[in-house]
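Troubleshooting entry. The earlier prediction with coenzyme A gave an output that would not parse, so I re-checked the input for stray whitespace and re-submitted. Clean input:
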Amino acid sequence: MTSRLDGRDAHLWQFETTCIGVEPLLGLLTDDEQARAERFRRAEDRARFVIGRAMLRQLLGRYLDRAPGDIHLHTTDGGKPVLPDMPQLSFSVSHSGGHVVLALSRAGSVGIDVERVRDVADLDSMIGRCFSTRERALIDASAGNERLLAFFRAWTRKEAFLKMLGTGLVDALDQIDCSPCADRTLQVSGPQGCARLAWHEYQPSLDHIAALVCENPDIRVSLHRPGWFVPLL
Ligand SMILES: CC(C)(COP(=O)(O)OP(=O)(O)OC[C@H]1O[C@@H](n2cnc3c(N)ncnc32)[C@H](O)[C@@H]1OP(=O)(O)O)[C@@H](O)C(=O)NCCC(=O)NCCS
């Protein structure tokens, strides 16, 4: 595995949950995390959580040259896991369907979101509630399955942005506009002001879409899986 994370780098790691045995990973989790794992009702939710935490601890351990058990995670009031003794190392975790994705960077705060592209029963009301006028226009420019994909692209952009901020659930999502620009940046505007952020999206598999947002627009992103990596242009 690549364990150097230079100044401008964001490393995006992808794991397929069906290829990973969960039980051997439990020993990498703290007692609290193991207790949380036991509370999941559905085996697939438990698996995604255990794999996410175990891989996060292993990766942080490699980048920081520490044992996974020596990684002391803290959860902010907004719900974001952070490393209090290493605040310059930002990371974000997301899971959906058969994928767990993680992003790590020393170049500013990062947020990542992955979603399985699936039917949404109340799609139109979700679009009305969650998106700005501009975001809605972008979704409505497509029809049928393309519209569903446009919805999840917009969703992952906004969710990754919110996870970058770490504030947790937000009431007036339609007041926040996350508009993609041609140069792979995201122009964000809302009640808190405006910002231009780095934005990269990719498809972990045909029916999944993932977005990474970073506060540093000059970030250099590469995609890693156990055994290989490629730069994302
Ligand atoms: C919890 C939330 C951060 C994401 O939830 P989600 O999409 O169900 O789940 P994901 O798999 O993408 O992300 C979960 C991970 O995000 C991290 N996380 C949790 N709260 C977070 C926060 N406030 N900020 C950043 N990261 C957070 C955790 O690592 C968590 O994984 P863990 O529970 O295994 O430790 C939160 O934003 C949420 O519930 N959103 C609901 C959906 C929504 O309103 N989206 C708006 C987009 S239009």
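This one parsed fine. The mean pLDDT is 92.
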